[in-house]
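[step 3/7] inverse_fold.run input=structure_tokens len=82
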């Protein structure tokens, strides 16, 4: 899989996720060879972050970062309580 294919697949997964089309996300990820899942996931997350940064103010980006970190921290705490 070349760089253009990685970016294309990452963009398609991002678009499907933005549409709320979980089935398309599953199908796209499911068609990937196992050794390409990681790099395409990185491309998809990068595409999503780029879209968010372009669409909202820097202050809103910082709030989203704080919210994501809080979510991760809460999930980690909950995971240690089981």
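[step 3/7] decode complete -> sequence:
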């Amino acid at each position: 899989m070349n760089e253009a294919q990685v970016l294309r697949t990452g963009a398609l997964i991002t678009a499907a996720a933005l549409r709320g089309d979980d089935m398309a996300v599953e199908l796209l990820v499911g068609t990937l060879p196992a050794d390409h899942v990681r790099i395409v996931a990185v491309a998809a997350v990068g595409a999503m972050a780029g879209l968010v940064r372009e669409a909202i103010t820097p202050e809103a980006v910082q709030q989203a970062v704080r919210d994501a970190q809080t979510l991760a921290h809460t999930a980690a705490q909950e995971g240690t309580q089981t």
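[step 4/7] annotate
Residues 58-80 form the longest helix (23 residues).
The mean pLDDT is 91.
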